[in-house]
Queue: 2 jobs
Job 1
Amino acid sequence: MFTAPLTASTRAQTGASKIANWRFQKLFEDADAMSIQGYLRDGTVVYWNRASETIYGYSAAEAIGGNLLDLIIPAEMRAPVEGAVRWMFETGQAIPPSRMTLRHKDGHGVPVYSSHTVVSIPGQPPVMFCMDSDMSALAKAEDDLRIAATAFESQQGMSITNADSVILRVNLAFTQITGYSAVEAVGQHSRLLASGSHDAAFYNAMKEDIAQQGSWQGEIWNRRKNGEVYPEWLTVSAVKDTNGLVTHYVSIFSDISARKVAEDQIKALAFYDPLTRLPNRRFLLDRMEQAHANCARRAGQGALLFVDLDNFKTLNDTAGYVQGDLLLELVASRLSACMRENDTVARLGSDEFVVLLEYLGENELDAAKEARSVGEKIRHALSQTYTLGVFEHHSTASIGIALFGAEQPETTAEPLKRAELAMYQAKTAGRNTIRFFDPQMQAEVTQRAGLENDLREALNQQQFLLYYQAQVTSDGRLTGAEALVRWQHPQRGLVSPAEFIPLAEDTGLILPLGQWVLETACAQLAKWAAQPDFSHLTLAVNVSAKQFREDKFVPQLMDLLARTGANPKRLKLELTESILVNDADAVTAKMTALKACGVGFSLDDFGTGYSSLSYLKRLPLDQLKIDQGFVKNILTDTNDAAIARMVVALADSMGLAVIAEGVETQAQKEFLAHIGCHAYQGYFFSRPIALADFEKFAQQEH
Ligand code: C2E
Ligand code: MG
Ligand code: MG
């Protein structure tokens, strides 16, 4: 045999053994794929072939003379390796070959398949040879396989077919989704799963995509083994060989029936009212669009019926929501029962329902008649007694009808708005009734909308101005004026407040407008204060209830007085009785606060409201203003005269001043003086006039 070849002590050799050694040495050296190392009993390296250099990173020069344990054995393996080496040297036997991971010079693990042998030559120290084949590539391939196998058994169904679409392999999820076991599926053509829902063109397009882009994905309906057709999301990829020829197809799919169900539910939620299961507003608008198109094409008429339950809120408030819901469900089913096949009943929200009659023929009058008769049917059906649990309930409905079709509306929702307006008319007309939308009504609404826009614009453009109407005493003395706002409309000229104040109140524009009036009036008072002709004059300013109810009204006015320097004692706020409707305590507190600063209060239009005397008594008023309505016929109408008398007496008893407005004649003035009213305002003295005119008037009077 041979001796441990390369150690320095065994270099000198002769004859045949030398040649044999040389041969083995060459063989060992050239064993490219196999690392061969030789060790002495204590682990000293005595041989290290070229492959060892590659696999473990140490050159022979570095390794030889070093110790096995220090070089390539990872720390945690030292003890067992030491034991195994000792055992081999003692018994002269080899431990069985095994896979282990040794250590490269740079520290990374090297998976190897390692076999060992101990060679003993008499007279020489025994040497243990280790023969390690590098398993890195194999280990990686094994890893890849394991990963692929795990991936294949994923949650998604997978199948692999050959180029002819014959199934070669399927995974567990495939079986779970399709119902076919691997045994049943393998060997079958993939059309086994086809549901018949797609035509040849569909499959051709799919093939085309795969041919061109290498894959296809999309939604497809397949059939399970039990016959059930289900939707799946499928990706098919072609596997090509090195020549670019398709060898296999890999299909990955997931069952999306659950997602489809969820989608359907979402759709139901989006288009139907969950309580009554009637179509909702969105659905209705969609149908209306179709109905419009239909009517336009056939030059015909359709109708919308807006149905609103009367006093539904009362039921909700008194009997509770459960009863309310119950009623709504019953109403929904009664409405549905009144419908013809093509009509739509929708619930817009709370107690509002809409019936869409899609086509009622070409003649407008006939269409209107038909719509009314459906409306009557509904009204009748909804006014029958309802049984809500153990209760009997009576309810009625107000119905507004709008026809559509003659001309194309501006928006799809337009007829809906019209029907709603008509419904409000029905409510105003006493409920449980039907009203048609008519163009006159529309004109008013349009004009109002236009006016509202103009009003906003007017505030920006400062188109408002104040007129002043004199307030005088019976001996002809001018005490001041009432400031009355005017709108200098660019097209319409001077617009009366009677026309725009109510709208300003509805829209909240009264707040900025009222503030502007107060600012202008206070600035005017401050100017007058510096002019002897006018310094004694007071200004009465109308304050809307909405404006006065604002939390910041008092601080804002105080700030304004301070800013302008106007004397609060010359400012008189005209309030109307409507201010007392809500929260008289808060009103009283505000009035008291302002009064403490010197601001005065007059109760405008007195006698037209419903204020209770006990309230009135608590208010820190200064003056009552007899409404012009009583003054007008004071000489002829004994009732009006009696009321005027009563107001004067009331003012006297409460220690308040009194003034009459709307005084147009000498006779009226004299009558008022006769009953004890000595302050007046009216055309008899002066109309409301512009500032310059008023100042002239004041100078003449003075
Ligand atoms: P009001 O406060 O009762 O004002 C008196 C109204 O009677 C004024 O109408 C005035 O022009 C009119 N008038 C005065 N004397 C006579 C007369 O002898 N005969 C007749 N037939 N009418 C007379 P105007 O200016 O059209 O104002 C109407 C209402 O608009 C006011 O009634 C008041 O409620 C409201 N208003 C006017 N300016 C303002 C304001 O700045 N703010 C608020 N919130 N409302 C205002
Ligand atoms: Mg007034
Ligand atoms: Mg008045």
Note: Confidence is low (pLDDT under 50) at residues 1-14.
Job 2
Amino acid sequence: MAYELPELPYPYDALEPYIDEETMRLHHAKHHGTYVANLNNALKRHPEADAGNVDVLIAELDSVPEDIRTVVRNNGGGHANHSMFWQLLAPNSGAGDEDPGEDLAEAVTRGFGSLESLKERFTAAAAPGALFGSGWCWLIVNPDRSLSIETTANQDSPLMEGKTPVMGLDVWEHAYYLKYRNRRLEYINVFWNVVNWREVASRYEAGHP
Ligand code: MN3
């Protein structure tokens, strides 16, 4: 069965003024849509390699036939990363929806001292000086329930290394260039206004698959 582009859980203009409608439209319909199309095309050559679940597929890249492995890595990674990313965003979440829930809040305090300090560390890790070029910045839940911040290049996912992301930020230029031009740091800072902390908390509760 072919993979499908998931619908956004909100309208394209819902994240204005932080993330603009045109960026969301292109990012979802064109960029994410292309990852899905490329993934399906590659899997036509090896339908038996399809795990039926993109998260499982990219977690087991070694068992994907070599002639499509890189395409699956880039486009399966792109499909998995963006499917998660849309869920992690929510309109108006900066206006009082910041409560990450008790368990996640405890882990944040234990690992970073405070939510503010987590945001500072995450922002620094995602900034161009630390993450050069295209990639993602992640908050990971470790097997001992602690949290860590990690980055990946291109469309690589922490799932490819057996790690469980609970939050992620796309810092490819296509995610911000129309509105923020080369000012990635500004985009990272406004991201905090649209984080869906309830979704992050529920992913933290779920922990490892
Ligand atoms: Mn993207």
Note: The pocket of manganese (III) ion is lined by residues 27, 31, 82, 170, 172, 174-175 (CB under 6 Å).
